[in-house]
Amino acid sequence: MIQAGVVALLLGSLVFVATEPYLLRAAPASEYRLELHLPVFLATPAAPPPFTPKLTMDTSTVITIAVFACLQIFVYTICLRKVREINAQDISPLLKLRLMENEENLFDSGLYLGMIGTAAALALQVLGVIQGNLLAAYCSSLFGIICVALVKIRHVRTYKRGLIIEVQATPVTVVTP
Q1: In a domain, 110, yes or no
Q2: Which end of the chain is more exposed for a tag (fewer CB within 10 A), N or C?
Q3: pTM value?
Q4: What's the structural domain count of the chain?
């Protein structure tokens, strides 16, 4: 087994050397020369000015973030209201589950609103309507992600789980003609 491997390696190397025409020849001289000149500065650089972080935010940034937060709180309350509305209806758990599935776009609306807010804030910054601040723009998406995570994980998922358990626990009645 090892002998066959060694023989194969030697034969493969021999074939490679025999078929490669430029392997044993020296590279031809080129008329192009590459020279690299690096300047060396001996003077010591001046110390950079000390960095002082800006600890306050502009009023427009705070207002924009507050508007985005209020919009997401509004979407959150609408979603909770819809879950409570479906829960309060006097219908079968299976029908409630179907109604909850029908409202998936509503439960994702926080993400849509967050993306629209980010796009609008970035567009307004490019147009010069508001001062350029990425914090205000990306807060809209962040608030949308948080809103949808709270709605879907905390409320929708829990409620749907209860409905699924309730559907599975109810006996199936078959009507025969």
Answers
A1: yes
A2: C
A3: 0.63
A4: 1
